[in-house]
Predict the structure.
Amino acid sequence: MSETPPNTLQYRFDGPEDAPVLILGPSLGTTWHMWDRQIPELTKQWRVFRFDLPGHGGAPAHPAASVADLATRLLATLEGLGVHRFWYAGCALGGAVGIELALRHPERLASLALIAASPRFGTADEFRQRGVIVRTNGLDPIARSAPERWFTGGFAAAQPAITEWAVQMVRTTDPGCYIAACEALASFDARAGLDSVGVPTLVLVGSEDQVTGPAEARTLVAGIPDARLAVVPGASHLVPVEQPAAVTDLLVRHFSTAWQPFPENATGHVVLPAAAPAAPVAVAPQPAPVAAIAPAAAPPQAQGAPDTYDAGIKVRREVLGDAHVDRILEQTDAFSEDFQELVTRYAWGEVWDRPGLDRRTRSCVTLTALVAGGHLDELAVHTRAALRNGLTPDEIKEVLLQAAVYCGVPAASRAFRVAQQVVREETTPPE
């Protein structure tokens, strides 16, 4: 690494020099080492580019005035390296940079993943108040409270070395750059532009994230035309650290399938001269995930028939959630396995996987059909699925009101009771 000019970012590469470039953006208060556990798998297909925010991880303390400024510096860094088109995954503030890139420079992005992100991070006053705390008391109070914001209580208690590593990451950040990043988040608001994000987008969130949780993730999915939601169980805000295997699997699946081709005769990357990698800080080994997200094995398929099981189980898990699908598969026996295979192949692998309707629309149709048929158990399941597919509670209410007109008030009344309970369960933060 050479000296970093004020208009660029400190960076490192990992992976084959001739592979397409995947960029990983960090969260506020972290360094590129938050992605260490993703690197071995991702570098099998991509040349992974990681960067540090100004004043983080020993990077020069050149404060950035806005998220747009960070995006501009990232592009300037990439221009100097000959990288013109890339995949991008960013966590929290790194996700805000990804949104900015998608809105202002869509021609540069092949695909996008937003992790623990939001179109607006809390309120401006919250981040400005954090800046006041740092100006008055330094970064130590923020550093000591970082594990509470970043990790579940069980993880922090079971992994004291990782918890201390996280505290030290914040403590060694330049205070002025941290305050500037807080100001950048205070002024960031992309809500009005989400429908202009034109690349395939994975929105990934930890189920226990109290900073930018599932509600913020659903706002992104509802606003971005081609977005999919993944909720990782047993994880809080810094989900790539807390559940590394699950996040890695989701990123590989997304970036391997949601691909937009590069322009003709352009790879998006030029071969770089070999450079000595930055020396990594010592990071304690991280645990295996509580519940890795992976497709179940498919049953045998009749020879010559098209195999839609793999596609079906993938869609079924994405829409209904791993916990629900795992519970169904665990209850499957010799009597019911043929029925479950039929449902997976034909309902999920063929109909739900057809390109003619997006998943939000399919959820609307499904809810209406279940109200009409009086299938209240399935209605509860698909109300949760509708939330996962990006429908807001208000949109679900509108679907049920429409159903009341065409399916009957008594049917809709029962449906409202079921959906109301599900929405309360899904949107009420745990105590």
In short: The chain is about 50% helix and 10% strand.
